[in-house]
Write the structure tokens for this entry.
Amino acid sequence: APAGLAEDDLKELIAAELGAVRDRSLGLTTRVLDHAELTAQVSPLMSPLVWDLAHVGNYEELWLLRAAAGIDPMRPEIDSLYDAFEHPRAERPALPLLPPDEARAYIGTVRAKVLDSLERIRFREDDPLTAGGFVYGMVVQHEHQHDETMLATHQLRKGAPALLDPDEPVPARIGGMFPTEVLIEAGPFEMGTSDDPWAYDNERGAHIVDLPAYYIDTFPVTNRAYIAFIEAGGYDDPRWWDPEGWEWRSAKDRGAPGFWRREGGQWVRRRFGRVEPVPPDEPVQHVSWYEADAYARWAGKRLPTEAEWEKAARWDPAAQRSRRFPWGDAYEEGRANLGQRRLRPTPVGSFPGGASAYGVQQMIGDVWEWTSSDFTAYPGFRAFPYKEYSEVFFGPGYKVLRGGSWATHPLACRGTFRNWDYPIRRQIFTGFRCARDAVEAR
Ligand code: AVJ
Ligand code: FE
């Protein structure tokens, strides 16, 4: 977290993180795929990878060169190509996009000018754009978010595997007997943030929310548990489904999470070009909100609200304050599966050291978790620095996801971070956990 750093140290951190995220982006694009694959569209849901690559550079030019440093546009004629609002994803392959070598040269030139201007710029506490290095943090996070999107494109792509799974080992197991759910007592907690320097507008500001008591699952729902739902006929019983979810399920006769199929009497899944048996202890991935909602009803539970998720993750009842991460305020390696250290979620129980004050585990990393909540503005919300990051998406169409996935970088993840998507979507790295009402003894 950049809070409290001297300006020079903050600039050093920013330069290092800009370098690291670019290395990640190139490792998902020009280093592993040829011209044809970079310019192809693998699904109408996704951009050609070469679009993401030039888009992150164009966004960096807009915010770090033009807005922050006052430098004239380099190539104003390409702005509209990379404006996500002018051209929906389905249209992007038909645009006269920069070819891969030109895209790489363009983003490299932008980057060189950014590093040059970073030395001269002053971060001013009275200027919200540069205070605490905010706009630089925004651009670093933006590129990491697109890298996660690019991983979803890789997952959808056909053909020989392009990505190597670093497959970092998980910490050694300690203990091992955990309750299946945890009681969160009734009472107020602080939701959102007013002082996280790189938080997005939609996470601000901190406000008190009072919740009745509830139970929340210790872990995300596993493949083993989800297979029990499938085998109990869960996909064939409209009692469990939201009416719109039943329609979604029926339109294509869906009967399992994305990328799964039945082979030789067992469930297998395609993962980045390789087929493997579905690992029973991993959190289920690639489920839509409708599938999560149906499972929860079948299990006699429900999805947690966004506030319930955040209280279980962040509130420390002894200290009467909210933490930035479940385990504390600082990001620490070895407490969560984040940052593409593996190409998969880890089995439940892999990170007991990442538990929240209440003992809820793996809330950060592994899989994005669907909540029952629509994506809406917090009290006193003000769009900053532009309406198209969050504000235009507020409303009943989108459901909130929390916690980040194995593909989310630690800089784009924290207990307050809010993600959102349509309830039918499951190409992203989504899972869920369940909750239920509790009636407290008097
Ligand atoms: C926050 C993941 C929904 O990918 O649409 C990227 C992030 N915003 N470029 C998205 C984003 C602008 C956004 N999500
Ligand atoms: Fe973007």
In short: The two ends are 42 Å apart (CA to CA). Residues 142, 145-146, 149, 389, 419-420 surround N,N,N-trimethyl-histidine (ligand 1) (CB under 6 Å).
